[in-house]
Amino acid sequence: MIAIIDYDAGNIKSVEKAVQYLGEEAKVTRDPEEILSADGVILPGVGAFGDAMGKLRDYGLIDVIHECVRREIPFLGICLGLQLMFERSEESPGVEGLGVLEGEIVRLPAESGLKIPHIGWNNLSFPRRGRLFEGVPEDSYVYFVHSYYLKAKDPAIVTATTEYGAVVHASVEKGNVFACQYHPEKSSGVGLKMLENFIKLTK
To answer: What are the catalytic residues?
Structure first.
């Protein structure tokens, strides 16, 4: 069973449907016991960094997420879920992120002349092919919706990048923790393959 953490963020339903489409049981929950007994855990989300951290705190989920990581339960952050895994975001100064991974979230550069938020399809490069990308060709296109992007402190954890006015750290992997800025559940067959690869890691 894959637990999908429910903290009132957007986009939870589409992640649940994608997991079910792949033949895996999905449970949208904020119950600590259900999350910690799951084979894998997904933290999805669309919204603001500060609001999301407030909700995770209100629902008592911060310690649960850290316990998932400590127990080495396969864990996947998607979009805002990726951003929350890091230390801080320019979107919400003074708000601490989960700090599971080292790095910060910064605003896409306005001086690039590109439209912000970045909404649409961009191709991925693999500086280090992570386990999510088994069977996924380099330069595959995935779907993004974001105004802020990750600058990971340790380049060794970065498994995919894209370019949108800056080099965006689009996916990371460290131990049992995976995260992607784009939406695999909205990225057609390529995205479903990535989710399928994550599910395989839970077996």
So the answer is: 79, 183, 185
